[in-house]
Design a protein that fits this description.
Blueprint (H helix, E strand, L loop, with lengths): L4 E8 L3 E6 L2 E7 L2 E4 L5 E4 L1 H6 L7 E4 L2 E2 L2 E2 L2 H16 L5 E9 L5 H13 L4 E6 H8 L10 E6 L4 E7 L2 E8 L3 H16 L1 E2 L2 H11 L10 E8 L5 E7 H25 L2 H10 L1 E4 L8 H9 L3 E3 L6 H11 L1 H7 L4
Parallel strand pairs: 1-9, 9-10, 11-17, 17-18
Antiparallel strand pairs: 1-2, 2-3, 4-5, 4-6, 7-8, 11-12, 12-13, 14-15, 15-16
Helix pairs in contact: 2-3, 4-10, 5-6, 5-7
Bound molecules: adenosine-5'-triphosphate and magnesium ion.
């Protein structure tokens, strides 16, 4: 056993797991695991498991151990974390890492305990948990320790959370257990309804990322996609455009953005003027959607800005929180 214990900031997401250590992101992998169906033996984790998705033999299943931001499969989550912890430890002998993990805002104590236990069983020497919007704000560089109000809106894969923060704590927050994956589903449904074509989740996600937008951005793009004809069952190719994606995702997007509206309605007047002056900072993978800043600005009436590197904000914040023990002591979620 070595003497060192590494400090890891872990964004345990529905879509992605990201780990920050020693000032940088050291791991970024899909939150996916491939298992044998009968013995539930792990055959691949992370990117390797994702690469198998949709093309694996019948005795194997590929799944996401988290759903809507919370653990859906406890043992598989533990196995996934163990693999990732080992991977970032490299060949050096470390004691179990000290980890800070993100949990969605508003999770139950049972759900929190499940995350804590999974991390410890996966080899962590100590595990601390803080709500994702707080960590995302910290990682985005917002001055959350001051008495002024700052607002963050984290757009994840399985959940979206808005929060106003001041003096290292959440003043008001709201979340919907709905995120980018719901937008993918909406694209699948749209293509099925309009073209009688069945497409998979990875195709829907790549449509969203490659040509998608939240609003008409004045730049129409298109993309050829292949699917299976709903009637004949044969493969068929169609072309989809940016404005079709805007239309397809409009409904779930409006619901997601409702979380930010709900927070603004609940924000105390002392802080509301700070938020109007400073705007809303967008984090999470969903913040990368084209025109999402304009869409939110228009919809909630407060300027919204994309964080510099939105997809890593939570992991960076988790790493920083762990390094700053004073911060930890003031805000630590009791377990
Ligand atoms: N360029 C992009 N445009 C639009 N959406 C994107 C883009 N890049 C990633 N996403 C979406 O961001 C989501 C993943 O974001 P993120 O990694 O923040 O989620 P997560 O932390 O795993 O999930 P959660 O916080 O809900 O548990 C996915 O739905 C993905 O499709
Ligand atoms: Mg997240």
């Amino acid at each position: 056993m070595g003497m060192f214990s590494r400090k890891l900031g872990v964004d345990l997401g529905t879509n992605n797991v990201m780990i920050y250590a020693d000032g940088q992101i050291v791991l970024q992998e899909p939150a996916m695991v491939a298992l044998t169906i009968e013995e539930e033996r792990v055959v691949a984790v992370g990117q390797e498991a994702r690469d198998m998705y949709g093309r694996h033999p019948e005795h194997i299943e590929v799944l996401r151990p988290l759903r809507d931001g919370v653990i859906a499969d406890y043992e598989v989550t533990e196995a996934m974390l163990r693999y990732f912890f080992r991977k970032v430890s490299g060949r050096m002998q470390f004691r179990g890492p000290e980890v800070m993990l993100s949990v969605p805002y508003g999770v139950t104590s049972v759900e929190k305990r499940a995350v804590h236990e999974a991390a410890v069983r996966a080899g962590a020497r100590a595990a601390y948990l803080l709500p994702e919007p707080l960590l995302a704000a910290l990682g985005a560089g917002l001055p959350i320790s001051t008495p002024a109000g700052n607002m963050v809106f984290n757009l994840g894969g399985g959940a979206s959370e808005a929060a106003v923060l001041a003096m290292n704590g959440i003043v008001v927050a709201d979340s919907v257990r709905m995120g980018g994956m719901r937008l993918d589903e909406a694209i699948i449904n749209y293509v099925r309804r309009k073209y009688s074509l069945v497409i998979g989740e990875p195709t829907a996600e790549s449509i969203k990322i490659q040509i998608g937008a939240a609003v008409d951005i004045g730049q129409e793009m298109s993309m050829e996609i292949q699917g299976r004809d709903q009637v004949g069952g044969l493969p068929r190719t169609i072309t989809v455009t940016t404005s079709e994606v805007v239309e397809a995702i409009a409904e779930p997007l409006a619901t997601i953005v409702g979380a930010a509206q709900a927070v603004l309605e609940k924000t105390p007047p002392e802080l509301a003027s700070d938020i109007i002056d400073r705007g809303i900072v967008l984090t999470g993978g969903g913040a990368l959607l084209r025109g999402i800043d304009q869409y939110i600005t228009r919809k909630v009436g407060v300027p919204a800005y994309r964080a510099e590197n939105p997809i890593v904000a939570t992991a960076v914040g988790a790493g920083r929180a762990l390094e700053d023990l004073a911060f930890l002591r003031r805000t630590l979620v009791g377990l």
